[in-house]
């Protein structure tokens, strides 16, 4: 099973924030109609389909699970109507819980119930000091042109979630008990990490689980090595 992930990008395509989500909404309508496996027509603002049909038909009876990210009102409304998993970046627990409640309330209008996911980085070492040394080492090699390009992007971006991420990175890198927004200094998008010993990282993840998060998309720098460390030292703690 391969989920369909829809996180709205901000590359210029000459449409406003509202129009991009209207296009996304219509796209999902077309996709779900395609998954029915029957011939259909669609005449919309952004897409037109004549005698469309998916061959071969989907293996999954209910279609491919849709992961959807977006923090604006229009994004959350589309997620409530069409997504299976509402995906957020690893922001403070209180804010994540508020977003989950908002989407849950919206989903009730459509008689739907979503699941919830977090996209976050992991930095785990045997000692807390080693973990934080590794975390700050990640952002120690950023070059000035890269930082300048990021700053220009941050000044013009219209993503609600990215604006909140920028505040976390600029005002206070550390938040909650074991979380850190320093990754946002070297990349846009998901800019936070859980940092610490295996037990501390488990606690950081458990805090999200306790408010209803059941899906985690984790990464590290470098990814393969960090995935192996996580698999060896953190995953067994959940057994």
UniProtKB/TrEMBL annotation:
Keywords: Flavoprotein, FMN, Monooxygenase, Oxidoreductase. One of its GO terms (biological process) is alkanesulfonate catabolic process. InterPro entries: Luciferase-like_dom (IPR011251), Luciferase-like_sf (IPR036661), SsuD_RutA_monooxygenase (IPR050172). Residues 16-215 form the Luciferase-like domain. SUPFAM superfamilies: Bacterial luciferase-like (SSF51679). The keyword Transcription does not apply. The keyword Flavoprotein applies. GO terms for molecular function: alkanesulfonate monooxygenase activity. This is Luciferase-like domain-containing protein. It comes from Lysinibacillus xylanilyticus.
